[in-house]
Amino acid sequence: MCNCKYRAWGAKMILIDTQKKEFNRLKDIRILEKGADEVGLNGDILVIGLGGVGIETARSLKGMLANKMKPEDNIEFLVFDSDIPNMEQTIEDSREGVGFNATEVISIYRKTLDDLLIKSDTRAYAYSDLAKWMDPEMPELNIGINGTKGNRQIGRLMFSNAYEEVRVLLFNKINMMYEKSKRNGGDGKLDFLIISGAAGGTGGGIIIDLAYNIRAFCKAKKFENVRLGSVLMTPDVLFADKVFKEDQDLTDLLNANGLATLKEITYYMDLKQRDEMFCFESTTHKLTIKENVFDSCMLVSGRKDNQGYIPAGVIYSDAAYFMLKLVSKKFIGSGKTDGSKELLRDVFFRPNENGPFKIISETDYRIPIKEIENISEYEVFKEAYKLLNESAIDKPGIKDKIEEIVSEFREFINQPAGEQINLKASFLIDTSTYGKPLYKSIKKGIDTLQQDIDVDLNKLKNNILAVQRDIKLKFMSSIEELVNYSMVQYGPFATMKMIGAKGYLGIEEDTGLVKEIKTLEEKAQSYRPTGEFERIIQSIRDICAKRFFAFPSAKRETENGYYDACIKNALSKEKTILMDAINAEDVYGDTVRWLYRVVDRYNDIFGPFCSELYVSIDDLASNAKRTLGYMMKEARQSELLPVDYVTPERIEDMRRCLVKLFVENEANIENDRSVSVKEEMERIYKNLFAGLGAFAPEKFIFNAFSDEKSGLQELITMFVAQDNEKRDRCLYRAAKAFVQGTYEKVGRKKLCVTEKDIDKEYRSERYISLPDMMPHFSEEIKKILIKEPYNISPDLITMNVGEVSISSDEIVFDVPYTVLGCADDMLYSYVQTDAYKGLHIDQVHDYESVS
């Protein structure tokens, strides 16, 4: 990693903060995996979150889908709540992509509720028909903008009161989605998934009414292929929170509400078999319907470990992860007779036969392809990063370019006075235009050579400012071109080392380009003009004045000597003029200072950025090694890439790509604008792994578990073969280590905790799916799973496109809520305490027979 001398640290902190999200996104890069988004989603579904619990779980699901959903998938979200501040916050959060926007949020709070609830003079309900199901002894409450305060009857009353406006928003959304499903090429279909807590006043209070209104609307519109399901969370999902743990009255209220909600849903899940109708009334509407409230209702409960209840956020995420499978094209089972497979979503929505609820246990043993990628990427990245820090001065052509720039000025400074000047500048004297004076004119002192020279030298003096600027511009432009060329070819750090400024990248003394220019500056400043040729000219004139040469040869020698002395004197004066001008303009000093600014700028721009990039990729590789530890304990080799894969050519390819990343985003980094690091690095990694060909993840795993290191060509040959004993033997060894390690590490994850082993008392179906992107490895895993101690039937194992995990889903059907681990606590609070139960219909129905 670069050893930068950091300056202007405050500016760099802004840069790092700006890029932090982008660096974090590196962990989301997928090159070798085929994610679920690549095979499409199982759309045509409206996900509805009710109250705080439902909204948070729906938010988690939306986050998982954020980068996968496309408009044509027809997946939409709606959330209902009575808590105005919470709704405002989730709308605000949507700007950061983690909440719900204003079109997805429906408030059931209206200011008219107090007038609707009670007449102050008679303490009678203003609308007796609407409130006839309310408990006459319901405690007095101040209804405000902060929700129902756990009162289910107030939640239902809010929904009924706001129904006229709510129904427009809800029904428009349903109608739009159903019509869109038809436009997408189908006959029209739509699934509804309502997520709610059972314990609160909003979710528990409105879930049944909302569900029946959806059913009634779809029935009135004659929509076919419509299914309605629910994910219902029991009160104990909240009990890890200190607020509930320390408030027994609040806990009792939630438990009592939870049992009341479960009892009501239990009743309405079997309404078809009863001689009754469901009835809903608002101030102006009334509907009756004889349908079971849900086709399917899944229970989620709180879980305990040795430290107590697991935080609600973990439970929300786990539940959302299972729902992610419902909106993905996840197939289960070995397939039907016609070769087709059944979707997990269809099994989930399949109506129960003998009981109201479904209980889910699910565990995904993720095959760590991403972690393998991270380690392999880092192996090439770190070598490329080393090259980025090698000085560009030793790269092909750089020394020649430096010499080309500097040699002209070095020659000008070092050449003796009186020599022809080859500096590229305007207004320099042209000695070829001067005629040689005759001896006679020299003797008489009337020759015009010196006058002609003086004219040209005066012209140079008169235009010296333009000459100064011209020399400086050309010199600095050539230096800038060199720096830019080096930057584009070799990157910022190699260029900084080529410049060689003291105090940066560990450079203790000026080197490279700075040293070369400072050497020119020192020699230029030490230059002193000579009067040697003036003395020679005067000496010749003195001799001519005293003597008369009769011989033609002597005259010619005098003429030649005089001419040469005048020319050399002119060139010497010209050099002095130019040297004084260059020193006065401080051409070399300004160039050195400019180079220091360039280095300082590059250091400020790229120092923290590149350091953070390196650290991010290094952290991913380190975390990957820890994650792979339990799986790789049986590995023969530590290397994942083929032994001959990290070649100088591939390292050079990555180095060039990294340089391109820096160069193309220089302005963005400098101006604190976000850089799409993920997209850029993903492009780089795609180029890197393209050479591995098909079955790349399996080649990685094979290489690690092989008895001997393999070359790339050998692996390619091995994995394109239909049968290969060496390949299968090695992958079986890897699969065994993987399955054993993951079962030991992860275990089963239950979304609902029960008091007993219900999978033996109720109908239970367990499905295993394996990733089809690793067919050889998955086949070896299957061989292990169908044997002891796992004993999974081959008919329950399927290959799923887009998966990167061994997925185990166990669904237990037709279970009553009384089997829950939290059932006794809910019943105690419901019966033995004064906690407000908030039942809608408890006065009418006796639940003993169904509880």
From TrEMBL:
SUPFAM superfamilies, per database record: Tubulin nucleotide-binding domain-like (SSF52490)
Alphabetized Gene3D superfamilies for the sequence: Tubulin/FtsZ, GTPase domain
Domain of life: Bacteria
One matching Pfam family: Tubulin_2
Protein name: Tubulin like
